[in-house]
Request: fold
Amino acid sequence: MDSRYSESEIKKLIERFMEGDTSLEEEHRLYDFFTREDVPDSLVEYKDMFADFAAIECGNDVSTVAETSVHEDGGLQCVQTNRPLHRISMGSFRKWAVAAAASIVVVLGTSLLYDHYEEERLERMYGGSYMVVNGTRIDNLREMQPEIENVLAHADEIENRLMASERIRMAEQTVLNGIADEAERERIRRILDE
Amino acid sequence: MRRWVILTLVFFGMVINGNAQNKIDEIVEDFSAPGTSTFSSVVERNPKTRKVVKVVKVLQLANISGFPAIKDAFDEEGKNGNLLTQTDRETTTVTITQENKSEIRIYSFSYETRTKRNGVVTIIIKYKKNN
Reply:
């Protein structure tokens, strides 16, 4: 037991520490007390807590790594090592994190913009189109896009077939109009209609 | 007074709209909702003006239940336009073309010649450019 402090005095200091009434000097006294080996059994439960506080206090200089050790006289000693903190690596980690976050934002933003542009384009070209598949209505133009293309291709096919039929009909009519003999014209017409 | 004018306009609008639909349009609408068909209505627009250039409706029927009604509608409407029937061993296609000053309507009905199954009804409405 440290002769400089009585057990009752330390208990009072702990109470005041808990209330936040201790001065810096008193707090250091507590840290010193609890870093010694001969802490009485009744106060052992506080040892770890005050050792942690002491370490925090010791580490206030954040440019280098701070370590606590026990001085020759049994008191707490704060040792500042020359090892730099991992600030550089944390800094580069932050840079990477920021770059990654920025990349994600750019990719997401581009994707959202593209989606918006594509929806606008489809709406301009095919707005009002819809499908009913087995009783379920679909209005989503992106979902429908392959079907829209199929339907329009099918429509073009019908229109082209009709145009071809119309050309054939007109050509046949021209041929028939050129036949003066009525019986022959009727015979040819029957052949063409077969 | 204003209310009567509006009601009259709405009434005439509905009558005109009703007349624009023929038997084939009606029957395609009737068959588009049930669960055994696939119906697509595609509106093609001029991307610059957003004006409707063409409307294409395609009804695919898997079974033959609708066949007689659709055939009847095509026979009926064939009287009001150019009717063209093409038949080969596999497929029969009936096509009707109707034209007025604002639009060209093409109705097509294709089905398997022998089984009268797998019918596809296509309606193409092309709007004329001066409208």
Notes: The beta strands of chain B are 37-45, 52-61, 82-87, 91-99, 103-112, 119-127. The mean pLDDT of chain B is 82. Chain B is about 30% helix and 40% strand. Chain B touches chain A through 28 residues (CB under 8 Å).
